[in-house]
Amino acid sequence: MEPRRAPWGRAGLAVCLLSCLLALPPPAAPSPCLEPCRCYLNTLLCQEPNSVRSLAQLRSLENFTEIVIENQTTLINLTLEDMKNPRELKNLTISKTRLQFIAPDAFRASPNLTHVNLGYNRLQFLSWRVFHHLRLQELVLTGNPFRCACGLRWLQLWLVGKQAESMGNQSLSCEGDDGVEIPVIDMNIRGCEVPQVWLEYNSAPMKEGMNATLRCHVEGQPPPEVKWSVPDFGGHSPHITYESASETTLQVFGVSAEFNLQNITCQAENEAGLSEGVAQLNVTFPAVIRDLGNAVEYHKWCLPFSVDGNPSPSIRWQFAGTDLEETTYIHTHFFLEGLRNSTLLHGCLYLDRPTHLSNGNYTLFVRNPLGSDSCTIFQEFMDVPDANFNLVDPVEIPTMSSSDYRNSTERSPVETLQEQPIGISVAVVLAVCACLFLSVMLIILNKCGQSSKFGISRSVALAQEEEMSLQFMNVGGGGSSSPLSSVESKLETLKTNFIENPQYFCNTSVHHIKRRDIILKWELGEGAFGKVFLAECYNLSPTEEKMLVAVKTLKEATESARLDFQREAELLTVLQHEHIVRFYGVCTDGAPLVMLFEYMKHGDLNRFLRSHGPDAKILDNGGNGQSFGQLTLSQMLQIATQIASGMVYLASLHFVHRDLATRNCLVGHNMVVKIGDFGMSRDIYSTDYYRVGGRTMLPIRWMPPESILYRKFTTESDIWSFGVVLWEIFTYGKQPWYQLSNTEAIECITQGRELERPRTCPSEVYDIMQSCWQREPQQRQNMRAIHHRLQALAKAPPVYLAVLS
Ligand code: AMP
User: Fold this and answer.
1) Alpha carbon of 580 to ligand 1 centroid (Å)
2) Is position 659 annotated as part of the catalytic site?
3) Nearest Cα to Cα of residue 112 among 536, 514, 516, 520
4) Where in the cell is it found (predicted)?
5) Which end of the chain is more exposed for a tag (fewer CB within 10 A), N or C?
6) Could you tell me which of 110, 114, 130 has the C-alpha nearest to residue 63?
7) Distance between terminal CA atoms of the chain?
């Protein structure tokens, strides 16, 4: 079998590849290449005969992911000392050498190793311990003079068992005591069996402070060695008694709450292999509040808390001494349920746009059968306003008369809203205020009216802008004037999506990917959350060993950013459609936190359109084998139809995107287009956003009047944005209202002016755009109908269109 080689050939990529390795600083180390070895990117090749005596002589191998050593007759042993440098190693080939011995711990410092080729060496023996901790996908051992012995029993089991796939079709043989060579799978060694382990313990709930006794029974030949592994929380001094070769007892004195969900393991190993039995104690203890912090604000406010207890405590809240009833506007959310390794629960009491009416004491009560706890915090969200009243409906804190404890998920929002006469009357009052304000505004606007459909004058709209800034500030910030960081501002957008989509607050199980399975290649771009990299990901697909993915890193991992990260991941896990970019999962073991998406090789649609328009001189797409040239009408219609299809899906879920634009769509192979970003691209395309009140970035050029004026985002406002996306497609990625400043664009949109028909746009398509730009949201054509119209046009573009210049 040929040794594995690095698949990359272009040395020009070396710098980028090395500097992009996940969680590693850019390489500063000297070159590890010793003459006559050669280095390509992150691959070391030593093939010149007899030049390497031991790998320990090769320094600075930290970033190397592949090592190939061949033809080295001086290489005899392989130890941990040899292998401790290349910690990122994934592929190792040591072949055609005199290698006789591999120490059991030789690969302990190379946890990422997945492909090992040890073919054509001098190995007579090889312990299972060498590979035990690895997730090998390929192990090549052909051409070694193995001796049939119990120490190879594991290999025999691998060849026929679960690991058979990683062994391929190798025909491995060994030499028996009689000097005859037989296939390893036919080896029959007496008294050689992998140990078996049974754990005996009381899994019933036990109170904190009690003693636990666990008995481990083992069987196996040769007699196995037994080891216990007990989580070390200090002060428990587990006591182990070896009663006989086949039975040992572990006693843990005074068990504590920390033992819950932690593994206590009994391991038995012999030459043939290893087995283990795992137990978890169920230690009960009273409900307790570990933390109740001050509210943190992004779009919603979160009153963070941590509670503990076994059984899990029920929780309830009081506001200003009265029981608080949960609704979609104020509700408890727990994080990472089901992904926990302790009984500690973290959560937030979320408040959607609280006002001064929400200021006051919040008391958290927790209870389980063993006890209860409570804690109060005073929270001020906003100063009491004077005459300047916020137009967007504030959230009244609903309270309950019943003092029953109830689980926060017990009630549906519908039920709870019906029981809110005070909340409803406040909403009615506010609606009346809003109507009055609107009427006054329209009268003023009509008075100053010019030629626009809605008669809003330039000067009034400009004056309004200042007003709007204040409104937005109040709405999003609850009166706080501290500006959000760029990441927080993007998180805010994401969270707003959630607010309008409360059904996504479920605990969707997010797929977790191991960091060692991700190899970053190079940077694709930068979004608000952090850099986006192209990466190879192992073990993601059952059919492919590795696949290309786009990895989004989270640059600021504050506790709340982490929580938002988790929530976004939950949302993305739910959204699955052929025209929504595929989300594979997250990697949270270590920093930075990353999200993995399907790689879309042509990047974002806006850039794609610009580079395939009349202005793009070189119609080359980077040598990836697909050249589209200037986009044809039919291709533009196909692009539009695909986005429409994704939007039909989002609308069917009542998911409001709020930031649909070509910069947030991605283009993949064969011009497959997918909606690929949910509010995270504001840094690169910062001119597409308008900063309002110093904090909120709004894509005003894509927003309908009601979103600009009242910050109302709905499925219908997404339809308006879709019309603008159509316009972007047919202008090869021009910025809407490019000739106008932000304030002028606001004025035009609110006045009812429409974007002009692009030169290459047939009237049938412009009709669709105009149906999206109806001022009355309800009069806009729905997404499904738009999709059908585009589909029909894409199938049979009118003939005359082909001659449009
Ligand atoms: P974002 O943070 O999502 O706005 O991403 C920043 C940039 O990274 C985008 O403009 C794209 O060029 C690139 N990018 C993001 N996601 C992907 C992906 N799934 N495939 C390819 N490129 C991507």
Assistant:
1) 13
2) yes
3) 516
4) Endosome membrane
5) C
6) 110
7) 58
The predicted pLDDT at position 57 comes to 67
**For the segment 369-379, what is each residue's pLDDT rounded down to a tens digit?**
999 999 999 99
Question: How far from the centroid of its chain's Cα atoms is residue 151's Cα?
Answer: 43
Strand 66-70, strand 77-78: pairing: unpaired
* Nearest alpha carbon, ligand 1 atom 2: 527
Instruction: Determine whether 508 is exposed, middle or buried from the number of CB atoms within 10 Å of its CB (0-12, 13-18, 19+).
Output: middle
Taking the CA atoms of 603, 605, 606 and 612 in sequence, report the sign of the dihedral they define: positive
Distance of CA 534 from the midpoint of ligand 1 (Å): 9
Question: Could you say which of 3.30.450.20, 3.60.15.10, 1.10.10.10, 3.30.200.20 is the CATH number of the domain covering 515-598?
Answer: 3.30.200.20
491, 521, 524, 624, best to mutate for ligand 1 pocket (most atoms within 8 Å of CB):
524
Q: 42-49: long-range contacts (C-beta < 8 A, 24 or more apart)?
A: 42/6, 42/17, 42/18, 42/66, 42/88, 43/5, 43/6, 43/8, 43/67, 43/68, 44/68, 46/70, 46/72, 47/71, 49/73
- Class of CATH domain 603-795: mainly alpha
Percent of the chain with pLDDT over 90: 41
Distance separating alpha carbons of residues 553 and 292, to the nearest angstrom: 29
Cα 605 to ligand 1 centre (Å): 10
Q: Which pLDDT score, from 0 to 100, does residue 711 have? A: 81
Taking only the tens place, the pLDDT of each residue in 473-507 is 222 222 222 223 333 343 344 444 433 333 333 34
- Residue 495 annotated as binding? no
Asked whether 529 and 552 are in contact (CB, 8 A), the reply is yes
Domain positions in the chain? 38-145, 193-281, 284-379, 515-598, 603-795
By C-alpha distance, which of 525, 584, 582, 514 is closest to 553?
525
Model confidence at 526, pLDDT cuts 50, 70, 90, reads confident
* Tens of pLDDT, residues 551-604: 988 876 677 677 777 777 887 888 889 999 999 999 888 778 899 999 998 999
d(CA 106, CA 12): 33
Q: What percent of the chain has pLDDT over 70?
A: 71
Residues near ligand 1 (Cβ within 6 A): 524-527, 529, 532, 550, 552, 581, 597-600, 603-604, 666, 676-677, 680-681, 684
Among the atoms of ligand 1, which is closest to the Cα of residue 598? Answer: 19
d(CA 396, CA 414): 16
> Contact, 701 vs 727, CB < 8 A?
no
Of the residues 323, 604, 659, 718, only one is catalytic, namely 659
Name the average pLDDT for the chain.
75
- The reply to whether domains 193-281 and 603-795 share a CATH topology is no
Local structure of 78: helix, strand or coil = strand
pLDDT at 609 over 90: yes
Token pair, residue 185, equals 């799978």
Looking at 2.60.40.10, 1.10.150.670, 3.30.365.10, 3.40.50.300, the CATH number of the domain 284-379 comes to 2.60.40.10
**In the CATH hierarchy, which top-level class contains the domain 193-281?**
mainly beta
